[in-house]
Design brief:
The protein is an alpha/beta fold and 316 residues long. The protein has 7 helices and 7 strands; from the N terminus they run H-H-E-E-H-E-E-H-E-E-H-H-H-E. Helix content is 26%, strand content 9%. This is Competence protein ComEA.
Length: 316
C-alpha cells in the first residue's frame, strides 16, 4: 500500500505540535552547604534562584496564513516552527516591486513614479520636436498666373482706316481647308486639306490627274486657301476666267492679263486671282485702302508664296 505524502506531513506536524505544547520540566536549584569565608571577610549570603515560568506555547491554526516567526531560544518555539515548515513546505511567492498578482492569479505590471515621469518627459520632447519642425517649415510661395493679353487689331501702315469700334479682330485661318478641285482629275469634287497645303496636295486628294491633263499650266507649289477652286486643264486647253469674274466698271479694266486694282475691285474680281477665294477676297476688301502692293502682305492668309503670285496681277 502506497503512503500518502500529505497525510505523513500532517502526522508529523501534529506530533511536533504536541511536543511543543508539552510542559517543560522546571529545574530548581538546591542550596548546598555554606562555603566558609576566608579569614578577614564576611560570609556570603545564600541566594535562592527564582523559579522559571514555563514558556507559552504558540497556537498554529490549520487555516491561518503563515506569518514570520521570531526565533526564541526555547525548545517550544523550535518545535512550533518545525511543525509549520512541515505543514507548508512550499515557499510563499512574494510580489516584486515590478509585478503583482490579482484575484484571478494574473500578473499585473506596476510602474513606479520615476519610470512614469521619464516616459512622460520623452513623449513631451517628441511632441515638441514635431510641432517645432512643422512651424519652421517654409510656406509655399504664391505663384501669379499669367493674364492673357488682349491685343487690338492694328490697321496696315498707310491705309488711314481706323478700326471700327466694337468690331472683332480678323478670324485666323481655319485648321481645315475646303478646296474645290475640277478638271482633268480622277475624282473631281471638294477635298479636305490642312492649313498650309499646296496645289499639288489638292490634286493628290482628288485622286491625281488623268491622262491628257496639263498640270504644268498650274503652279503646283502655290499655297491653297479655304474656299478656293483649282481647275486642272487638259493639254492645249485654255483656261477660261471664272463665270463670276465678269468685268465691271469697278474693276478699272478687263479681266485677263490686266492687273486688278486692290482699292476698287469687287469681290468677284478678287476671287478671280489665283489662290484667292471668297474668304480671302473679303479680307482684302476689309484691309482697304492700300498705299502699295506690298501692303497686301499684311492681310491674314497671304503668305510669301501667294504674294509672289499676286504681285504681277494686282495694282493700286
Amino acid at each position: 500500500m502506497t503512503a500518502d505524502p500529505a497525510s505523513d506531513r500532517d502526522d508529523v506536524a501534529r506530533r511536533l505540535a504536541a511536543l511543543a505544547r508539552a510542559p517543560r520540566p522546571v529545574v530548581t536549584a538546591v542550596p548546598g552547604p555554606p562555603v566558609p569565608a576566608p579569614p578577614g571577610r564576611r560570609a556570603p549570603v545564600p541566594v535562592t534562584p527564582a523559579p522559571v515560568p514555563p514558556a507559552p506555547v504558540p497556537l498554529v491554526p490549520s487555516t491561518a496564513v503563515p506569518r514570520p516567526v521570531r526565533w526564541a531560544p526555547t525548545t517550544a518555539g523550535a518545535l512550533a516552527h518545525a511543525a509549520q515548515t512541515v505543514r507548508d513546505p512550499a515557499p510563499q511567492e512574494r510580489p516584486t516591486s515590478r509585478t503583482s498578482r490579482g484575484p484571478s492569479g494574473r500578473v499585473r505590471w506596476a510602474v513606479d513614479a520615476r519610470t512614469a515621469g521619464v516616459a512622460v518627459g520623452v513623449v513631451a520632447l517628441l511632441v515638441g520636436a514635431v510641432v517645432l519642425r512643422a512651424a519652421s517649415a517654409p510656406a509655399g510661395e504664391a505663384v501669379a498666373l499669367p493674364t492673357p493679353a488682349v491685343t487690338a487689331e492694328v490697321p496696315a501702315a498707310g491705309t488711314g482706316v481706323a478700326p471700327t469700334p466694337g468690331a472683332s479682330t480678323a478670324p485666323a485661318a481655319p485648321a481645315e481647308l475646303l478646296v474645290h478641285v475640277v478638271g482633268a482629275v480622277a475624282q473631281p469634287g471638294v477635298v479636305h486639306l490642312t492649313d498650309g497645303a499646296r496645289v499639288a496636295d489638292a490634286l493628290d486628294a482628288a485622286g491625281g490627274v488623268v491622262d491628257g491633263a496639263d498640270p504644268a499650266a498650274l503652279n503646283l507649289a502655290r499655297t491653297v486657301v479655304d474656299g478656293e477652286q483649282v481647275r486642272v486643264p487638259r493639254v492645249g486647253e485654255v483656261l477660261d476666267p471664272p463665270a463670276d469674274a465678269v468685268p465691271t466698271p469697278a474693276t478699272g479694266g478687263q479681266v485677263g492679263d490686266a492687273p486688278v486694282d486692290l482699292n476698287t475691285a469687287d469681290l468677284a474680281a478678287l476671287e478671280g486671282l489665283p489662290g484667292v477665294g471668297p474668304v480671302l477676297a473679303g479680307r482684302i476688301v476689309e484691309g482697304r485702302p492700300y498705299a502699295s502692293v506690298d501692303a497686301l502682305d499684311d492681310v491674314p492668309g497671304i503668305g510669301p508664296t501667294l504674294m509672289a503670285d499676286l504681285r504681277d496681277r494686282v495694282r493700286v
